[in-house]
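Next comes this protein.

***
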Amino acid sequence: MNIDFHRLALADFDDLAAGGGRTGLVLGLRRTQLSKRLLALHAVMTDATERAPEAVAASGLTNSYGVLAASQRTVPEPTEAILLSPGLGLWAMHCLRRLHGKASPSNPLEEDLGILGGFAVAAALRAGLHATVAVPLQDGDLLIPAVGRVRVGRTGWATVRIERACLRLTVGDDETTVLEVPNATATTPHLPAGPQDSRWRMVPELVSVVNGRRIALLLDDVDPARRLLDLPMARGTVTEDVDAWQQRLDGGWRILDDYDPLIAEAVSAGLATIFPLAASSWAEELSASSGEAFGAVALTLPRDGLSFAAALVHEFQHTKLSALLDLVALLEPADERLFYAPWRRDPRPLPGLLQGAYAYLGLTGFWDYRRLAESGDDFAHFEFARWRDEVWRVLSTLRLSGTMTPLGMRFLDGMRTAVWAHRQKPVPNGPGELARQAADDTRIAWRLRNVEPAPAQIAVLAQAWIEGDPPPITRIPIRIIPGHRGLVTSSRLLLTHLRLLDPKRFEAARQGVPHVLDAKVSAADQALAFGDARTAAQAYKEELEHEPDLLDSWAGLALCRRQRLSSGSRALVTRPEVVHRLHRRIEELSGIRTDPDALAAWLPELVP
């Protein structure tokens, strides 16, 4: 297997820094990923042979690798599509971590190594080879990544004999399945379904064409390596789901082409696969990507075409940056500090900050287009205002971190120039204020979850409060504590989205029409969303009287006070974690549950 040498022109680097990256550059990045895959495959073969020869023999790894190599020699271009399958990248890096003791799953090593057999079957079919490959069955199915699944109804391992368009599966001593796969040598990214066969289900392909520009995305719920993403994967895509995916892609592709045809073409060149995700209670809509799975987007079914287009823009930014980071170092390694990221509930390391800022830089440009293309689209104004300011703050954090390489600083400068241009543009007052409120809400809630003030200083302050003395200290050190992973979500943010996306329904809720809002939305959150901060504050304080550790109620109360900082509420807004921990410590020492506003007013201007 041949590996290319790669160079990146400085002009292309600067284009990427500003959020760009046209089709030719994306195809170049894709080529670098092929080299990365070949290197990773070679490393797996070498390390597995040295460290786990018995598992290699049991898994058929050497044979599977040989089939892939023979396929590449026979039909290079179609086989490269298999080598670039996102799951192959996930699989290779997972195996390397496992072989070096950095991952310890419970299943036998030979099962992980055997996953390569599924990719070998796909490559042999594509090349029209005669080959025999061992593959572990998954839940009674033979899984052929990017191709389809064969229902076997057995467990264990299958021996798959490929004879051009024919698959013969043997499990144990029994030949259980003979399947004809028509057009097996097709160069399209997947194989056609052919005659109906209840044992066979092809991976569907979503295709959309607008103004001659085409995007094709495999909706792959077959690739066994996709589960290595540790995300809630959808278990299957039934026919009606595929139709819904297709309709929403059609709408999203029209929007993306109208936004910027050149960006649309680049997205089409860089993305090839969707791993469908299952919606969950904490995220009805979710998208994700991984630098180990170039070309793939993990995605819940978007609610509409606009959501689909935004997800593609967001994840394409991640895809470009991850590929760039395989070529150049933008950050110094081994910095373990954690920081605030306004798109996450948990603290993030600096590489995560850079990835997120770059993704939201792309979205800022997208929402800028959308708010101008759709007159009166307050949701687009809100998203534009929110993310241009949040990205700017994160870029400042990165710049001051002291860990950016010279090329990293150049990259930040390109991003800052692009964001600065956005920050000069006017935004209507209504969505602009909602964006500021959402930013404050996110920051306050994050501090309550993830910032721990020094216990010794909190104890000193608590004793002074109990004894009726003035605060004896103004400096309270903090530490960032790793929290539960997750995206930012809250009832208040959902109410803001409802206000902007469905104003009639929001107004009905304001007028008291029953059953408009989810029963879990508190009266306090409703009052704040409807503009009654006084009632909301009282309701939040009543919630805290009953449950003083309700962090969401602390954040809500701080939001109610954010317009009255001069009246003694500054600590509640700027250092909410101090007020919360002090409130708890006073009760522990005295049994008294103090008034949060009085406590915040008592505190002086605090410094970390």
In short: Confidence is low (pLDDT under 50) at residues 183-195. The chain is about 55% helix and 10% strand. The radius of gyration is 27 Å. Residues 23-51 form the longest helix (29 residues).
